[in-house]
Amino acid sequence: MVNRIFSYLLILLGGLLLPFSCMGIASTSEVQEIDTLNDKAHAFRYINLDSLHHYAQQAFQKVNHYDLGKAESSNHMGFYFFMKMDFEEALKWHEKVYSITQNEIELLIADIGHMRIFQRTGRNKEYYDYRNSALQRMKNIEEDYTVFVEKKERLRLYYAYSEFYFISALYHFYLQQQDEAKQVLEEYEKGIDSNAFWSLEKENYKDDAQDLYYHYIKGITQLNDGNYSEQLALFTFDKFFYTWYLAREKNYPFFIGGALQELSNLMIRPSDFEFFLRWRSSALNQLGFPLTKKLPLILSQEALSISKEYNDLYLVVKSYVTISEYLNVHSEYQSALDSLSVALEKVNQHHKHYYHKHHLNNGLDSLVTYDSAILSDDYTEVLWIKKHILTVPEWIARIREQLSFTYASLGNKSASDF
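^ that's the sequence the OP posted. Answer follows.
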């Protein structure tokens, strides 16, 4: 009798679960498993890229019926490939989201993922196409915030909004539109103060990585300002120092390396180093390096080491350029040229790895420090743009700027004009 009752219960339970499977409704256990994997992927994005990829890929592959979880994992994969600078693959993963879900938050994050890629690669039209799409989705979301009541949804909502403002600020900054970049961040700050990014009551949830990203970008957008006063210089220093301090406490290597590099940038010129040594000696001591005139160089080298370990090619190249700028300022021109040559070769390696189909034989499609036989219309970087290759113009422009200074200092005018 007991066995018969048990059999009836199993049949009843199977009958209850069968409709959910046939209807394509995700079980509670599937939702919990996929959400956990996606949460881990999100948490690792500025800590360890391999871990980010591992958890995002697991989430994507394990989904049976949980489309929202699959869409989130696709966005995580898009972010991973963006950080690896495989922009075409990143675009493919963000594109998947549009066919997986109708959830406005994940669709918004996919739009912002496109914005991030096109900002980095200097594609203005495409950037604005997806920015306009993102703005429309934000308007749709704002019409009924109360739909998003779950903590996870509200965290994804904050992530989406903060990324939108941060990427927008970077877009203006790299176009040397400092006022517009600052205005975007001010709008973000007003949103935080007015609780505009949360769907219900005042939230206590935090995303440490987004908080670090805000301080990092706040510091960056103060640079190259026409009115670079001493007060503004100290404010910028404090933002980068705070980013470094908090990133070290919470183990975010991306921000540790990025903040050290920016601190180095601030102090490259001897007069600037002396200024910060006078007004921020306590903070400089906390960095843990000797307070000599070589401190900016040491910080850049440390940033380079951290960026290599984190495996961020973009920051690696930026570190080599910062090192070369220090060497140029201190009249070590041949060493600066060596550092810039390495930076240029890193860009070539990136191009060969991800765009091998575009790459020509015999090195004819490689960037060179100087070649008198190449005319301006035939510069490799110009040809890349004409071929619609997703490279990073700002990356190459910084290298060329320092190469021009280096060659001019070495007395090679033709190479300086290249």
